[in-house]
Amino acid sequence: MNKKLAAALSSGAVLAVAVTGCGGGGDKGPDPKLVSWAKTVCDAVPAQSAKIKSANASIASIATDGNLPPKDAQKTYVEAFQNLADGYKALAGALDSAGAPPGIDGGAKLQKDAAKNLAGLSTSYTELKKTVEGLDTKDQGKFAKGLKTVAGQTKEVGEQGDDGTEALKRLEQGEVKEAMAEQPSCKVAASAAAQSTAPATTG
User: Fold this and answer.
1) Which residues fall within 8 angstroms of residue 6, CB to CB, at 6 or more apart?
2) What is d(CA 120, CA 100) in angstroms, rounded to the nearest whole number?
């Protein structure tokens, strides 16, 4: 049961990679204003990417320990879901604060769509945390049944995460991608996040 829950969360780590913006490099550098915009976004990424990575690792650790008491499992899930909610909320906030990428056609819509998706993920993980908090840890059978429900909900959030990844990819095209690729903070986060996820293609 726990393994299914852990597997359903894998898209969260993939999303952490997507938001970092990887690759880049044309002959002509991007607009300085766009580089400044990218710095605003990228500077928020490493800490939140680390938080998301840590939360996914905590959940994965439960999957390998089938004998963990319900109360301990509940505590770990609650903390992990809270960290995922906080991480995605902060990333959404960074995009909101940065505003539309300057000089990019349709940039405002792309930026708003990506921020909206990240904020939605944050809300979903908050709801999952509340669900886990309400599980009966005194009855092993009821707790296991409750976790099965959570696993189903988590799978839905994972699909929502896929939408978020696509929204970020649409934002991170062309000059935006080049500008983000120049930021040391995005490079560091991309490297760290890539190491924490199952094989995934980015940038």
Assistant:
1) 56, 59, 60, 62, 63
2) 19
